[in-house]
Amino acid sequence: MKKMDYQNVRGTQDYLPKQEVVRRKIRRTLEDTFISYGCKPLETPIINYTELMASKYAGGSEILQEMYTLTDRGERDLALRYDLTIPFAKIIAMNPTISMPFKRYEIGKVFRDGPIKAGRFREFTQCDVDIVGVESQAAEAELMMMAVDAFKKLDVKITIQYNNRKLLYGMLTLFNVPSEKMNRVILILDKMEKIDRAMLVKELAEIELSEKTLQEIEQFLDAQPTLKYFESYTFTNEFVKQGVQELTKLAAYLSALGIELECIFNPFLARGLEIYTGTIYEIFLADGSIKSSIGSGGRYDNAIGGLLGTDQSYATVGISFGLDVIYTALELTGKIVNNSSDIDIYIIPIDMKKQALILAAKLRNDGYKVEVELSGKKVRKAMERANRENIQKTIVLGENEVFANIYKIKDMVSGEEQVFNFPFEQ
Q1: Best label site of 193, 201, 320, 425, fewest CB within 10 Å?
Q2: 346: confidence class by pLDDT, cuts 50, 70, 90
Q3: CB 358 within 8 A of CB 425
Q4: Which of 251-270 are b and which e, b meaning 16 or more Cβ less than 10 Å from the residue's Cβ?
Q5: Which of 146, 155, 121 is nearest to 22 (CA)?
């Protein structure tokens, strides 16, 4: 009989209990933060029609190359979701009675057949929040504040880089980048944090921009302009003007919230996805131990109307946190210390399994997390396990305790015992 290949599919990963305990704590921290901001939960299907995921209002040509496609028995063209954004936009398009503004969060698996690196897999978990029905930059500011709050709870220092696609698009228009090459240029600029300057310029040259356009882009990169520079200069380009106005309002909110030091204006931030129409942002580890972002998002006002086949704009802004890359970040920074047990009390019965289960039910009803040793381990071996797994309290339950209608809880650190009454079945 041929031996089965037990290897995981490339880009997927198993998480054993010690790892998964940490991942679930991260997930709960994010979810609790989302709920504290008034977000409502949603869940959308993993499998969608290819037409939806490939819409021009979805991720754009770059991400479609990484989309997993399949067919069902009815030969329908289907695709696995590559993010949670378009399935959410579909929900709003299909449910016009939802009252606005609407804030939702969703945590779920997504799939991309893309490059694999630290914290980046082909099957991964995204934790998203989106707000529909708020045109003000207050929505962006609240989501950025939410990110700062969540990572403070996780004890992770971050910086949030932000920009505006209108500003970037307008500046590239001023540099005479042809419209048909605009998205390609934006995708290349989106790699600024990932590739060196020489490679970036080489890629720009390869798309055959004019010498003057290339020089102006390079001068723009060299200038490192601040937001104050854009505010003090009078631009005739309407996109630039709108972008600067929105950025100025956003900066005022960030200052009022006291998070302006964590939020850094980056005029070259591009967010390569074509879906974005205004503010964009990416979250990075402050110490740079992971170069890629651990969260990102922005405004995408045209997606919902586009799915409906209309030109109607739906003010929509979102943020996404990558659970897997956050776990990797905590691992790299040495913040994962999983020495504590999730079990409060470990009951070790000596030929008293039925009574141990009855006692465990009572203790669980009192709010404790309780495990009963059911495999028949000797007391010494069970105690060794309790010490190895840092279980703080144990109960050894034998016939003497049962006949006396008592149980003793032992603190494994101090060695102290407390005696409690309990009416066992005789």
Answers
A1: 425
A2: very high
A3: yes
A4: bebbeebebeebbebbbbbb
A5: 155
* Whole-angstrom distance, CA of residue 62 vs CA of residue 59: 7
Q: 205-212 contacts: CB < 8 A, separation 24 or more?
A: 207/181, 209/177, 209/181, 209/185, 210/176, 212/176
Q: What is the pLDDT of residues 99-123, one digit of tens each?
A: 999 999 999 999 999 888 766 789 9
Backbone angles phi, psi at 35, to 5 degrees: -65, -35
Which residue, among 160, 107, 21, 82, has the nearest Cα to 323 in the 3D structure? Answer: 107
Q: Where would I find the beta strands (DSSP E) of 213-291?
A: 263-265, 279-285
Give me 186's structure tokens.
Answer: 């934006």
Tell me phi and psi for residue 281, to 5 degrees. Answer: -155, 155
70: which residues sit within 8 A by CB, 6+ positions away?
Answer: 47, 78, 79, 80
Radius of gyration of the CA atoms of the chain, in A: 27
Q: Residues 257-301: pLDDT tens digits?
A: 999 999 999 998 888 667 889 999 999 998 888 878 899 999 999
